[in-house]
Every structure is written in structure tokens, then in C-alpha cells.
Amino acid sequence: MSVAGIIFSNIHDSNIADLTRLRTMASVPFGCRYRLIDFTLSNMVNSGITNVYVITHYNYHSLMDHIGSGKDWDLARARGGIKILPPFISAFANNVNVLYKTRLEALKSINHAISNIKDDYVVLSDCDVICNIDLNEIISDHINSGADMTIAVKRMYLTPDSARINIIYKTDENGTIHDVESYPANFEGEADVSLNIVVMSRRYLQTMVLDAIAHDYVSMNRDIIARNVRHSYFRVYRYDGYFAVISSMQDYFKHSMELISDASVRRELFGVKNRPIYTKIRNSAPTRYIGDASVRNSLVADGCVIEGRVENSILFRGVRIGKNTTVKNSILFQDTYTGENVSLNCVLTDKDVVIRDNVNLSGHTSMPIYVEKGRMI
């Protein structure tokens, strides 16, 4: 039995439009030194999936730079390995001949690549879910059940606000899907929430894509699952571990800060035996702490220079904190520079931001201040 992986790198870009203006969702930095795609790729590699396709849309240059040949994930292989599929507009992609907007349209646009897959099963995954999951368990459950499609979910309580940003599957006691609701407006209660990880056989995927092309289907949930739920066998696999869905800038900030505030989150993501999270290796110098530098309850990557005070914050590679500067409850992306006598609270800076001397910026945990890439303040 062999398994291929297909990763959607852009599907949820609009959820955090500020961070994806110049990059894909897959290449959004997270957790001090990682990108969001690192979790999806690592889940596949740790589960023995070494034939991986990454579907791109636009702004994928930083993603290509991050992945490179795939050697950091042991995916630089003569056979299999990682393949980045640039956007391809075909006559069958959609009736206005523009780039895809949904997963099904994305799959239709790479139909040629899908038709050449020789593996027995395929795992489809988005990049907006952060988790460390054993995909072998889902694959085995799918094979043993004989289902046409198995979708990873987590059983959780939803408020009307949280339901509006989730896909909900209604199931029986055996996990068989009998209905699906996409982003319901008035739902409240216990529900199976999608993790955007789907397992199916290669033959079913190829048939599904050809059927979607023939009938001009555009939505996997509405046109495939909802239409066929009565005469096909769709089921869920309930995952009990930690996961975080990035549905907004507030979600991104909150889940990033969970890495600091909750040790169990760090353990479930980065402390699982035999399931490390891989990323691109950079040989930077160790972080320097100069003079009266003070760092408390923070994650600090290598290559930083700190002369001020840092509390409850995440610093990516190459960040410079000036003298008498205080950074609290903030996330500073790579090569952010702060001058002297600066005060930052609940601030998220993109790469290459410069904060000049004597600047004070203060947001709130529910609405952090975002400073765009390359900005000088």
C-alpha cells in the first residue's frame, strides 16, 4: 500500500489577508521558526508519505524558497518527493477561465497530474490547521471501514460565532456522514468540525475529478458530499489531540500566544515522540543578550540581538531589540528592528519592519496592531 499527499497552499488566504498579501497561507510564519506548511508536510512525512503535490495559486515565490528541493523534509528524491504545481488555467477549471477558488476547482486544474498518480490512496490537506497528527491511523481507519471518503474531524462545542467559520458534518453513532453544513449561520451545540484533512483511494479521487469536470461541479462539500451522501459511504475520523484553525488574524495571534501560555500545546505540537516538526534549516548565529537585556516567558529564535526587555513574546530570526526598549505580548517576524526607548504591546510586525526610537505602539489581544512588511515607523 502506498499513499500520496496533496496540499492546498492558498485556499484560505482571505482569512488572514494582511499576512497573505505577499505570501501564501502555507508560507505564513508561525511559532518562532516555522511556516504553516511545515505542520502539514511533517504530518505526511512522519506517516511515510513521500510523494507530495503542493498546489499553488499566486504569491508562491516565498513558498518555493522555503521548500526548495524538499531536502529538509527528506523529500528530495529521484522517485516521488515533493512537486510544486503552479496555477494552471484549463478549459475545464471553471466557466470564466480564471484561477481556482475552491478545493475541487484546484483539483480540476491539476487533473493531468492526478491522472498520473500511481499510489493506492491519497491524503488531501489544507494549510490552515495546525496539529501533529498520525495520518497512518486515519488511513488505516479508512481502509478497514471500506469508506469512499474519510474526513478528519474533532468533536467540539460551537457557539454561533465559531460555527460560522467551520464546516460541520452530521453523523450517526458509527461516524457515517448523513449531512454537511458549510459555515452555518445559526448553529450552536456539539458538532464534528472538519480539520480539512481527507483520505480517499486514488481511483475514487480520479473518478471524482472527472465527474466534477463533466458536470461543472465547484464545491467538494456541496457538489460531491451533499449530492452523494445517500448512496456513497462517507465517514469521519475523530481526532482527540490539539489542533488550531487559522480563520482570522485574531485566531493567528491567539494560537501563537498559546505556545507561550500553555505548555501542553507545545508538547502536543513539538514534543511527540517520533513525530518531529521539520522546517527549513538556517545556520544563524546564536542569539546575543547584551548589557541589561531581560527575556521572560518568550520564544526567541536564533540570530537575534537583544538589549532591552522582552516578555510574553515571540521573536523570529534576526530580530533586533534596542536599549531601553520593552516588547510585551507581541510577535516580531524575521529581521524586525526596534530602536531605543521603544514600547510595543500586542503588536505583530511582518518581516523587515523598522520601529524607530521613542515609538509607542499598543494594541489588544483581541485586536493586535499589525505592521506590514518593510514598513518604517
What would your notes on this structure say?
It is globular and about 70 Å long. It has helices spanning 36-46, 61-67, 103-109, 111-115, 135-145, 160-163, 202-215, 220-228, 249-261, 263-270; strands spanning 3-8, 29-30, 34-35, 51-55, 81-85, 121-125, 129-131, 149-158, 167-171, 177-182, 189-201, 234-238, 243-245, 288-289, 294-296, 299-300, 305-306, 309-311, 314-315, 320-321, 326-328, 331-332, 337-338, 343-345, 347-349, 354-355, 360-362, 369-371. It is an alpha/beta fold and 377 residues long. The strands form seven sheets. Strands 1, 4, 5, 6, 8, 9, 10, 11 and 12 form a nine-stranded mixed β-sheet that branches. The chain has a five-stranded parallel β-sheet with strand order 15-18-21-24-27, with no helix packed on it. It has a five-stranded parallel β-sheet with strand order 16-19-22-25-28. It contains ten helices and 28 strands. The chain has two domains: 3-270, Spore Coat Polysaccharide Biosynthesis Protein SpsA, Chain A, CATH 3.90.550.10; 288-371, UDP N-Acetylglucosamine Acyltransferase, domain 1, CATH 2.160.10.10.
